[in-house]
């Protein structure tokens, strides 16, 4: 199960209001990055039959069938700091991560 922090939930809601025909935020994992896997996120206008959906209030986080197992137990958060702002993923399955936090090895 993926969790969504309260801050991320609010930010997703705000950003979805600016988009047209969006049903949720897709979070995915693909090969690449300096540690083997790389996170990605995009607003989604439709869901697939094999997608896993996590709902918190009216916010949906969507994962495809290949990404869902790699994201099991992860938390989607939104960070706003002097170094910048953006979504981050805290993944307990990540054995190692890169300095920027966008890639990991499992």
Automatic annotation (TrEMBL):
It comes from Nitrospira lenta. Residues 2-101 form the Core domain. This is Iron-sulfur cluster insertion protein ErpA. One of its GO terms (biological process) is iron-sulfur cluster assembly. InterPro entries: ATAP (IPR016092), ATAP_core_dom (IPR000361), FeS_cluster_insertion_CS (IPR017870), HesB-like_dom_sf (IPR035903). GO terms for molecular function: 2 iron, 2 sulfur cluster binding; 4 iron, 4 sulfur cluster binding; iron ion binding. Pfam families: Fe-S_biosyn. It comes from the Bacteria. The lineage of its organism: Bacteria, Pseudomonadati, Nitrospirota, Nitrospiria, Nitrospirales.
């Amino acid at each position: 199960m993926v969790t969504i922090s309260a801050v991320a939930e609010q930010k997703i809601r705000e950003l979805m209001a600016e988009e047209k025909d969006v049903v949720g935020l897709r979070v995915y994992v693909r090969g690449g990055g300096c540690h083997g896997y790389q996170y990605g996120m995009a607003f989604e206008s439709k869901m697939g039959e094999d997608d896993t959906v996590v709902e918190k209030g009216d916010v949906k986080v969507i994962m495809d069938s290949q990404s869902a197992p790699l994201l099991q137990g992860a938390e989607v958060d939104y960070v706003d700091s002097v170094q910048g702002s953006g979504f981050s993923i805290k993944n307990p399955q990540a054995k190692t991560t890169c300095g920027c936090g966008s890639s990991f090895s499992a």
